[in-house]
Amino acid sequence: MKFQCEKTLFNNALTSASRVVSSRSTLPVLEGILIKARDNKLSITGYNMETAVSSEISADVSSEGNIVVPAKILVDIVRKLQDGIVNFSVESDLIVCINCGLSEFKIVGIDPEQFPKLPEVNKENGFEINQALLKSMLGKVLYAVAVNENKGAHTGVLFTLENKILELVALDGFRLALRRENIESDKNVTFVAPSSALRELEYAIKEAEDKNVIIDTGSRHIQFIMDGITIISRLLDGEFLNYRNSIPQTHNHILSVNTKEFSECVERVSLLVSDKIKNPIKIVFDDGNINMNLNTSLGSAKDSCLCEGNAEAIEIGFNHKYLIDAFKAAMPDERVSIKINSALSPCIITPEDNDSYLFMVLPVRLKS
After folding, report:
1. Beta-strand (E) ranges in 197-355?
2. Rounded to an integer, what distance in angstroms lies between the CA atom of residue 362 and that of residue 147?
């Protein structure tokens, strides 16, 4: 096996693959990156038995072959090489030789036959969506995914494509994030994709690219294909909450706020909250103002921001982080609507002029 390739391309592909490589595994081969060289192309793959990331780049291949190389040392070496052409070859005893400029390395490779075969994904239920649009949609829901692995399907994002409307939903029991968009597809599919794979997808998408992502779903796996990058992941089993029943359909009070001003106000007040001190912020919705108060063992804080609308001096307690996350996801919209019914009902955050997203945050009971 022998090839030459441009260092920057090689480094970018290795970095993407290494993000899913296991740092410690019962299978040493899973701590490596699989490199395949043929037809003047390199296929570079990282796999942890749940998610695989594979990139294809151009190379001058003089001798075809496959090799697995320990990921950490390979990525570190290539990252530190000077810019230019990397010469890569494998000797008969699996010794990998890497040369670039005056730098030369020899490291021990791993038999590629030990590398697990990647899952094959049925392409019958495939659809396409613009890369930048998908990145935007993921950015508005991934923050609300459950981090507790015992919550099964809620550690992923629910995708529902029906009647040319794609809807993404994430929830963790305390908050919910929903994002929907019209797309050109006649398919009707529903699946739950792991947040880990979706974060790799979000990382891989270049926001300026006006190209599509192909999404193929099988019975157990999903595949995302774009710009020479393929991400394959298992789908999550288990029942996803019937979230529609938990979203209030009517609202006694609707207020309009400046997104940035409200978020910054919450951030200032929450400076007195820490990992050990997790007191809720008390928010009082009043006529033309939203007043925020926080009392902790460190002291007290007060702040306020303007709003349009009146909620009759309703007092609600909130986890500060959940509010900050929701309002950051609402940006860059200049203004949003806050919809509430009572001190114990969920707070709904939506755009003022459309239904492209909806964030819901459950209140915290305040001590009297």
Report:
1. 212-217, 221-226, 229-234, 253-258, 281-285, 289-296, 299-308, 314-318, 335-340, 347-351
2. 17
Q: What does the block give as tokens for 267?
A: 């951030």
- If you write DSSP's letter for every residue of 208-239 in order, what string do you get? T---EEEEEE-SSEEEEEETTEEEEEEPP-SP
Exposure of 307 in the CB half-sphere (CA atoms within 13 A): 30
- The Cα 2–Cα 89 span in angstroms is 4
Percentages helix, strand, coil for the chain, rounded to the nearest 5?
Answer: 25, 45, 35
- Helix or strand or coil: residue 244? helix
pLDDT digits over 314-345, tens only? 899 999 999 999 999 999 899 999 999 998 99
Give the torsion sign (CA, 295, 297, 300, 305): negative
pLDDT tens per residue across span 100-121: 999 999 999 999 999 999 999 9
Are the beta carbons of 71 and 48 closer than 8 angstroms?
no
What is the pTM assigned to this prediction?
A: 0.92
In whole angstroms, give the CA distance from residue 323 to residue 355: 19
The stretch 170-190 carries a mean pLDDT of 94
Of the chain, the end-to-end C-alpha distance in Å amounts to 72
Domains and CATH numbers, the chain: 2-114 (3.10.150.10), 127-244 (3.10.150.10), 247-361 (3.10.150.10)
How many alpha carbons fall within 13 Å on the CB side of residue 82? 6
Query: Residue 249 class from Cβ within 10 Å (0-12 exposed, 13-18 middle, 19+ buried)?
Result: exposed
Closest CA to 130 of 167, 179, 182, 170: 182
